[in-house]
User: Fold this.
Amino acid sequence: MNLYQTLLQPLVFNRLNADPEAVHQQLIRTCAWIDRHGDRFPAAFLKQQLRQQLTLETPQLQQQLWGLEFPNPVGLAAGFDKDGVAAGLWASFGFGFAEVGTVTAQAQPGNPRPRLFRLPLDRAAINRMGFNNQGAAAMAATLKARNTQSVPLGINLGKSKITPLEQAVEDYLSSFQLLQDWGDYFVVNVSSPNTPGLRSLQTEAQLAPILAALSQANQARKPLLVKIAPDLEWAEIAAIVDLAQKYDLAGIIATNTTIARSGLKTKIIVQTGQAVADEAGGLSGAPLQQRSTEVIRFIYQQTQGQLPIIGVGGIFTAADAWAKIAAGASLIQVYTGWVYEGPWMVRQILQGLQFRLAERGIKSLQEAIGTALT
Ligand SMILES: Cc1cc2nc3c(=O)[nH]c(=O)nc-3n(C[C@H](O)[C@H](O)[C@H](O)COP(=O)(O)O)c2cc1C
Assistant:
């Protein structure tokens, strides 16, 4: 137990029980304020304190990927900073990259609250936020005005709820066109369980035209990735891998949250009194860990390690991160684990990864990718 878990986390979680989203919103507002005022006191001081406490210089963990310089492999997963309002600050929390969004072409409120639930017994969360965000134009204005960002920034694109599935291509395309100058890489998110029909866009027939349109519009040849669900069958994943290769995608993000509910200790959601199995949404955190690692391994094997993978799902510790890298992930992302473990988690993971490299006599992280399979 560290300071965060003994003192802060109970406070944070108690408030979350009253209104699960309130703490998150407060945190994002504070981070956005620090980011906006980061060049003068007191925000500059706070930013410097964060850096001092939470970052770690890790030359062995640096990586060049897609022509971008990643100072370390641990990124902030999509959904945390949906509008990119603190995009410039995430490096100060120790992250080697950050992914903002999901952003949609149209601003939208998301699903009715409550829509975010914690399952502490399972070190998990269920959310059905439904892509609440201010829209692609607002994000473009925010990112244009931001302070310089020192780590790569990904932008995760989703479909607006009001846009019919048949017009998904135009919807993704219009977000991409508005934002293409402001991100270092882009993600086609077709795997959230919280927008009706969205996951059907993972089928070859529906995904191909989206990838074709974005590839064609991609003047600056920014890396394009697709983020997939853990609930797909192997054949469906294999078809997406084929498409990724056909459209020369930069990589795959595996995985989004799951609609499965098996093996949970939590039976009732405290906030609603509902049975967990009846509470719609995507499950994240520890229960997702194994499945997401399996998906990473499968993609790595299918592609003989030729297609970079960003691994995400249930990472809490360096051991969890190492398992994803050894299964084939070049980079990893965290969300739920970070909320449970606190802001020191990134640094602890980096230290643990450094230790594992040293223990095995491996000089750089790249050499560790996919080693569980060789
Ligand atoms: C509250 C919440 C909101 C999320 N919103 C998004 C989102 O907007 N877009 C997206 O691609 N993934 C979203 N995710 C999924 C995460 O990016 C990640 O893929 C998933 O939570 C698994 O990682 P974890 O176990 O470390 O949380 C969200 C997750 C949570 C918990």
Notes: The mean pLDDT is 91.
